[in-house]
Amino acid sequence: MSITTAAGGVLSRLDLDGVELRSADDPRWLVDARRDALAWVAEHGFPTRKDEDWKYTKLAPILDRPFEPAPAAVGTRVSAALLRARGPELGGARLVFVNGHLRADLSSIDGLAAGAVVCGLATALLAHPEQLEPILSRPAGRRHGFAAFNDVLAVDGAFIHLAAGVSVSEPIHLVFISDTDGAALLSSPRCVVLAEAGSRAHIVETHFGFDGDVHCTNSVTNVVLGEDAHVEHDKVQDEPETAFHLGLLDIQQGRGSRFISRSIMLGARIARQEVRVGLVEPDAEVSLDGLYLPHGEQVHDNTIFVDHAAINCTSNQLYKGVLDGRGHGIFNGHIMVRPGADGTDANQKNKNLNLSDRAEADTRPRLEIYTDDVKCTHGAAVGQLDEHALLYLRSRGLTESGARALLVYGFIHEMLDRIGLVPLREHVQTLLERRSAGVQ
Amino acid sequence: MLKIENLHASVDGKHILRGLNLQVNAGEVHAVMGPNGAGKSTLANVLIGREGYELTGTIEFQGQDLLAMSPEERAVAGVFLAFQHPVEIPGVGNMYFMRTALNSLRRARGLDELDGMDFLGLAQERMKLVEMDKSFMSRSVNEGFSGGEKKRNEILQMAILEPTLAILDETDSGLDIDALRVVASGVNALRTQDRAMLVITHHQRLLDYIVPDRIHVLTAGQIVRSGGKELAGELEEHGYGDIGAVGAGAVGAGT
Question: CA separation (Å) from A66 to A145, A216, B99, B165?
């Protein structure tokens, strides 16, 4: 991942000298924060498989490749017609990003409730810098190289602000399209969601691109929930299988707040979705669901950290993986219950269905519990298709491939069922059907 | 319709069927009775094409070589097994499963597929046969069903898929008397001139309700005796041991 056009400059050699910190129009604190983040990367480097949270995912294909930051002008194939063709149409506000840059001409925030702001991050930095400063100038703390690199390079993304008590009934759709016209470009979108006390919203992220493009998305989304705020977040990642996708979803939850995340991971050669949840005030509740389906040569990494730092908080995780071909699925779920976080209720479940001798499933639940008054459950399983069930279905006339597909459908059905937005659920079903039929 | 000749089946070196001969004609109901370990379930498994058996001999079904066919080809040809232990399939709705199965058969036979509404009508009609509540159709296939509900669900599939040859493997096991009556009356309603049935059972009880045309006694991998429905009463009185001895005696008397 080279940041200049200098040939051979790749991140694995930490060739950061040419990185230009964007400063035009930006507030001083932001330029400082970018410089700090770059210094952090220079000092700590990018993760390796010696790092606990990265031990299963080989990063060389990303770090050894000379990527350049994506400029705003690239992306000639994106149009309103393309958006209609690739779907879904969710009916609410929609922001469209091409290689991480907002395309205002394709975006619409018509009909948004009063008290809700939905705009590009670059716009928000001019209009509401004081709201962004606490998030974007955060200290380096527990970040890793990719998150820090997003701090360095992010210039656009989505900004969503919900004033206290504001409820947005239609989903807010963030569409991220990679269209690099064949160039090896790095997109670094940054999204910030500030949900004040008692507010409600449902945010949908969809990511797609063009088959054959080799690009890398390194996205970070911060969500801060005030007291009793409710936010749902669906993410459907369907990047081409030639591309790379790294995503960090960072959640901070206030008292009594509720956050629901569902991740459907379909695309990319190497994809990693990291979710970090800070349950920092009492009575907060979080639910994290994930479905990942690596096939071919895909690597799908789900890394989760739930930090129970306050009393009476609840967390539920359900992740299911279907592994085929030489696919590699990773579930790395870490639950921390800090001293004094009494009344914690933490549940974690990971189930994998392995369809191929050459596929690999790694499942790693980690529970660190420093208080007695907790209820914690966790379970992890890796299984194959049931031979008895296959014969049962074939004896009723289903072909072998039809029987296998029906059993896989039975396994993942529960995850699809949880997608409450019907057009989004149908969209995911269509993507799954196309995938199993081998159509891109 | 079905002609089995000199069928041998082994699994892991264990010789289970040892030269079995059986012929079933259209419109007939045959019962195969025998003690545990006689090879009854092996016969059912071999007929639907379960893998893992070493086989010799022939099975001819309506002029076709059944042993050369895959399980789904046998289903398309009209063979159906009501399983002794129906499989639970979490996440797949019962209605969806049965429609998928019927449409797979119809497609393979060159017929139009049924849409959701047409299928619903058919399913509701056939559910009456086994007195099944419609709530079962929205549940996952066999998941959480009681033993009796699973068996009724098998007969419902038979009623919907309308096979030419229906094999019932220990359909009475685990049923109380009321459930047995329901299942048996469902089966009896499906007896036709064109359809044959092979009822595999350990107990004579089922045959009080599904009265067969012929009864065969299977012990140690062979049919040792065949007769009319009155054979059931004899078995009831003397048990399988004596019947086997009678068979052996008959052979002895001929020498």
Answer: 17, 11, 52, 66
Contact state of B70 with A394 under an 8 Å Cβ cutoff: yes
Q: How wide is the angle at C-alpha A329 spanned by C-alphas A324 and A333, nearest 5°?
A: 150
- Mean pLDDT over residues B84-112, rounded? 95
Residue A5 banded pLDDT, cuts 50, 70, 90:
very low
Confidence category of residue B246, pLDDT binned at 50, 70, 90:
very low
Contacts of B75 in chain A (CB under 8 A): 394-397
CB of A383 less than 8 A from some CB of B: no
With an 8 Å Cβ cutoff, are A396 and B87 in contact?
Answer: no
Positive or negative, the CA dihedral B77, B82, B88, B94 is positive
Of the candidate ranges A6-10, A258-262, B101-105, the one whose mean pLDDT is the lowest = A6-10
- Residue whose entry in the numeric block shows the structure tokens 């592994």: A323
- The tally of CA atoms less than 13 A away on the side-chain side of residue B64 is 15
| Cβ contacts of B50 on chain A, cutoff 8 Å | 391
Q: How confident is the model at residue B143 (pLDDT cuts 50, 70, 90)?
A: very high
Per DSSP, A72 falls in state T
DSSP secondary structure code for residue A254 in this structure: -
Contact A216, A435 (CB under 8 A): no
* For B77, nearest residue in chain A (alpha carbons): A397
Express as a percent the part of chain A with pLDDT over 90: 76
- What average pLDDT does the segment B150-174 reach? 94
Q: Is A340 within 8 Å of A374 (Cβ atoms)? A: no
Least confident of B57-66, B158-167, B177-186, B228-237: B228-237
Q: Does A386 sit within 8 Å of B75, measured CB to CB?
A: no
Q: Would the ipTM clear 0.90, i.e. be above it?
A: yes
Say how many C-beta atoms besides its own lie within 10 A of residue A53's C-beta: 18
Among A315, A323, A303, which Cα is nearest to A344's?
A: A315
Q: What is the mean pLDDT of chain A?
A: 92
- The CA-based angle B15-B17-B21, given to 5 degrees, is 150
User: Is B78 part of the contact surface with chain A (CB cutoff 8 Å)?
Assistant: no
Quick check: B41 and B81 in contact, CB under 8 A?
no
Does residue A391 sit at the B interface (CB-CB below 8 Å)? yes
Q: Is A402 in CB contact (< 8 Å) with chain B?
A: yes
Alpha-carbon distances of A239 from A177, A383, B191, rounded to whole Å: 8, 27, 56
Query: A327: Cβ–Cβ under 8 A, 6 or more apart, which residues?
Result: A293, A294, A295, A296, A297, A298, A299, A300, A356, A359, A360
A389: nearest CB among B87, B102, B157: B87
**The two structure tokens encoding residue A235:** 């993410």
pLDDT band for A1, please (50, 70, 90 cuts).
Answer: very low
B74 touches chain A (CB under 8 A): yes
Q: How confident is the model at residue A10 (pLDDT cuts 50, 70, 90)?
A: low
Looking from the CA of A250 toward its CB, the CA atoms found within 13 Å total 15
Nearest to A161, CA basis, from A205, A222, A234: A222
